[in-house]
Amino acid sequence: MASLRITLRAGERIFVNGAVLKVDRKTTLEFLNDVTFLLESHVMQAEDATTPLRQLYFIVQMMLIEPGSAEAARELFGTTHAAMIGTYRNRDIIEGLLEIKELVGRERNFEALKGLRTLIPIEDGVIQGQGEARAPVVPHTPELRLAAGGMR
């Protein structure tokens, strides 16, 4: 396995295997083995999960940031994903959601987040009337809301 180097700016945070790390000066981290991480710039706050795909992003994000709550998040992902597949008519979103489900099924959550980041602008276009969709209602759970408090 090749190592992975990440450079962080002063005050920046990174989420590594469920832990939040904050650096006080510019720092380069080198991961020498497999690690689950998420850069602060890719972390979505609960109050920003205002659309269905953003809510799905938040759920997958919780699988990475809160490993102890991953199973509850995985169950919520299944329910939410199924509702979304039946709601959207935009072919790009549907195909993307099918790929996201496959990635989450293989526990490739980081890649699933990358995929969701590419779908969010498409969803924004749909919401602004540039595509077709019915507005899905996505449930929130107190467990995930509480876990989100540790991300700030």
UniProtKB/TrEMBL annotation:
A Pfam entry, by short name: FlbT
Keyword set, alphabetical order: Bacterial flagellum biogenesis, Cell projection, Cilium, Flagellum, Repressor, RNA-binding
GO molecular function, one term: mRNA 5'-UTR binding
InterPro entries to which the protein is assigned, alphabetical: Flagellum_FlbT (IPR009967)
Example of a GO biological process term: negative regulation of bacterial-type flagellum assembly
Record's keyword annotation contains Cell division: no
Top-level taxon of the source organism: Bacteria
Purpose: Has a post-transcriptional repressor function in flagellum biogenesis. Associates with the 5'-UTR of fljK mRNA and promotes its degradation.
Entry similarity comment: Belongs to the FlbT family.
NCBIfam families given in the database record: PRK00794.1-1 (NF001995)
Protein name stated in the entry: Probable flagellum biosynthesis repressor protein FlbT
Organism of derivation: Aurantimonas manganoxydans (strain ATCC BAA-1229 / DSM 21871 / SI85-9A1)
